[in-house]
Amino acid sequence: MRHENSLMHDVLKPMPWGAFDRLVDKHGADKGVRKLSTRSQFIALAHGRLAGAQSLRDLEAQMTSQATRFYHLGAEAAKKSTLADANRLRPAAIYADLFCIVASQAHRGLRKATNEAVRLIDASSLSLTSLSSEWAAYEAHGNGAKLHVVYDPDAQVPVRFAVTAARINDIAEAKTMPIDAGVTYVFDLGYYDFGWWARIDARGATFVTRLKKNTHTSVVERHATPADSTILADLVVMLPERMARSRKNPMSKPLREVHVRLDTGKVLRIVSNDLDASAQDIADLYKKRWDIELFFRWVKQTLKIDHFLGTSENAVRTQIAVALIVYLLLRLAHAAQTAITSLLTFTRLVGANLMHPRSIHDLARRQSPPPPHHPNQLAFAIC
Fold first, then answer.
1. How many CA atoms lie within 13 A of 368 on its CB side?
2. C-beta separation of 258 from 233 below 8 A
3. What is the pTM of this model?
4. Less crowded by CB within 10 Å, the N or C end of the chain?
């Protein structure tokens, strides 16, 4: 019988397998491995995210029942214990590096033509069990990890990520990331650090964020605002010269302060080092921050990124990286077809048909029901 590729094969088509093999060699991941190659580990974990596997035992059963399909994907069915060992021992850095390669590929393919380069920065907490307390203990909130993401709202893809214990402050991780000239970085109060703002400005980049209520500014200039607008004030201001313990404030340049009234009546003080953009443009850039909140909600609810098949630090890092790579592959697969406009609907259909011999291009078509059996045919079959 002629073999037909499964839907999973279509989803994995953009995978740069040559680069993947080089990463495996670089990290020595398959050295001395007798069972379950790193490629099989990746395909197993990717399948688990797409199929909604609830445990390693569940994933083992799914793979065993579709062993032939996995063989044609270049993978072997994984035993529960073998996969658990791989998640614990194979370096998660392979998948972090692989994410960078796939993210670059997805970014080029999905980004729209625009002069703007906007990056949203945020972090989201992920709850862990007491089995992860050795590395993820957090007295105030129990055990947890934190996923830090730099997100491109235009391409709708993450471009950088990091995983830390939940006790690590957002700004501490942000200070380790590179800053690109000409990019506008949008973030919230978790990144309230005047020194970091000054560093962004010095690198030729722009930032848009919020001011705390108790931060006093000196008004240098007032701009007119439209009547009946949600923009209440458009100011050029200076931050205080001194910070806590009489330290000199490194952000000593004039800034833009825009007051915006929300539908709830709350007034936000938005601040930026962009002195030329309109107040509305600055307010709209800050509003884009909601996109990264939607991204976190999507990957948690759809790819179950807050449910882990392993509790060690390496296993958690591996599964988060694989889930983000799966998200990128889904975005590329969704963009490659035109019948299904909703990414969520597309993902649900992929999960329901994952190992079926179907293409991403015919997911929207209803499968023809089997022809009704004639009573005589049925009787003959029983005999």
1. 3
2. yes
3. 0.89
4. N
